[in-house]
Known about the structure:
161 residues; five-stranded parallel beta sheet; alpha/beta
Amino acid sequence: MSVAVVMGSASDHPVMGEAAETVRRFGVSCLEQVVSAHRMPDEMLRFGHEAADRGIDVIIAGAGGAAHLPGMLASVTHLPVIGVPVKLKALDGLDSLLSIVQMPRGVPVATVAIDGAANAGLLALRILATRDAELAARLRAHREELGEEARRRGRDLFGEA
Ligand SMILES: Nc1c(C(=O)O)ncn1[C@@H]1O[C@H](COP(=O)(O)O)[C@@H](O)[C@H]1O
């Protein structure tokens, strides 16, 4: 099982690194690469065309501004593509979000929140867990930990219910 985390620029890495970190924390291999539809269109197309044959199962693609990378990758592969709108200084990330989320019918990209790279990692893991019981168990335990943490914080604030 393998996830690819690609980003339009090295400047996206402070955000996109969270996706890779999340995937690896659950023991799944993850490659990271800068691939830009705008700046290196030929490489981007090659990456998308070859991804499935390279054993990649899910692609997480993050980009900021005129964020065409996730959609362009989705147009040349059947693999699930999760898009991460990266927030730039101008327009607060709304430009990135709108560039990714409104895909034409037939070419799906699963868009997460602005800068939501950690959730993109978890979503990729959930996709892989549909055919891996051990990973599914790890995700279930993680979900239970989240609930426990939320309850503990509530008790710290308001006492026992
Ligand atoms: N949106 C895209 C694409 C693309 O969609 O192909 N390639 C680069 N970029 C974005 O440009 C922003 C600024 O990049 P620089 O910091 O390198 O100037 C980054 O957020 C990148 O994702």
